Amino acid sequence: MDANIVQQMKAEEADLMRKLDAVRAFLAAYGVQNGRAPSGERNMPKPAIVPATRPASVRDRVPLDRFTEYGREVVKAAITAVKKETVRPVLTRRLVELIEAEGVEIRGVDKVNALSALLARSIDLTSIGRRGWTLAHEEDGDGQEPEENGPHSTSAGGPDASGEGGPTPSTVFD
Hints:
By secondary structure, the protein is mainly alpha-helical. The protein has helices at residues 3-29, 69-84, 92-101, 111-120, 169-172; strands at 125-127, 133-135. A two-stranded antiparallel ribbon has the order 1-2.
């Protein structure tokens, strides 16, 4: 055999022995020795159940005044566009057309995706999946629109703007 191969194999063996020692130390910490639990079972202890948490990527829904100037302009335009449309929910692609027709720029290469990301953070609009967007109060399911037919956000002219009406999502948590 080539001396170089023998040297590589000895180094590999030493590396594997270090890994084996680490695995044995780990098992010993759980009370498992020689591959068997203290009761003689071969099963490893069950891992602790960790409660489910919301993914870190999910952001809270916020009122208009919590958006940047750009986001506020786009979301306000979307609210206005949804109100004007007679058929709801309104497809995101249709909202892009309506908003851009009003002269409001939607940034990003994929305008539909960019708009959807902005609208998903708004408390004033609700996504109905691929079907599109509705005003938040329309998702309540009672088929009745509230007396104030506007957005929830104070900054969007909703019922909180005049101090009338009950609490809304934009005021309950402030």
